[in-house]
Design a protein that fits this description.
Length: 148
C-alpha cells in the first residue's frame, strides 16, 4: 500500500479547506459549548465558529476521489481550522459528535494552528492506518466518548 501523500493532493486539500472556511457562515460557540470544548482541551474557544447544516465535501477530483477512497464520503461533522461543520447542533454536555470534532480542533492547535501540517499529518495517518485505526481518529473517538 502506498502511504505517501502526493503534494498535489495536499495542495488541493489546503486550497479546498481555505476556500470552505472563507465561504462559511457560522456562529460563535455558546457558553455551554465553549465549556464542553475546553474540557477536551480546546484552548481558544473564542476563535471557533460552528456551522450547522450540510457538511461540505470536495466536489472536484483528485480530492473528491481521495476523500471517498479514504472513507470520508458522508461525514456527520468536519473540523477545518477553527471552523466546525456539523449536520446538527450539539445536544447537551455529552454530545459525542461535537466532542469528537473538538478533539480535531485540539489536534489542529497541536499542529501549530496551521492547515498544512494538520492536513499532512491527518492524511498521512489515514493512508497508513485507515480511518478507524488512525491515531487522531482513535483519539477523537476516545475524547468524544466512543470506544470500540
Amino acid at each position: 500500500m502506498n502511504t505517501q501523500i502526493s503534494p498535489q493532493l495536499v495542495e488541493a486539500a489546503i486550497a479546498w479547506a481555505e476556500q470552505t472556511v472563507q465561504g462559511s457562515t457560522g456562529r460563535p460557540l455558546t457558553k455551554e459549548e465553549a465549556t464542553m470544548a475546553a474540557k477536551v482541551g480546546v484552548k481558544h474557544t473564542e476563535l471557533i465558529q460552528i456551522c450547522i447544516g450540510p457538511v461540505p465535501m470536495p466536489q472536484e477530483d483528485p480530492l473528491r476521489t481521495a476523500v471517498l477512497n479514504l472513507g470520508l464520503g458522508n461525514p456527520e461533522g468536519l473540523a477545518i481550522g477553527y471552523s466546525l461543520f456539523l449536520k446538527r447542533g450539539p445536544k447537551g454536555q455529552n454530545d459525542i459528535l461535537f466532542l469528537h470534532e473538538c478533539a480535531h480542533l485540539v489536534q489542529f492547535g497541536e499542529s501549530g494552528g496551521r492547515l498544512r501540517p494538520f492536513i499532512e499529518e491527518y492524511l498521512g495517518q489515514l493512508l497508513k492506518d485507515g480511518y478507524l485505526h488512525s491515531k487522531w481518529e482513535v483519539e477523537a473517538r476516545r475524547m468524544g466518548g466512543i470506544t470500540f
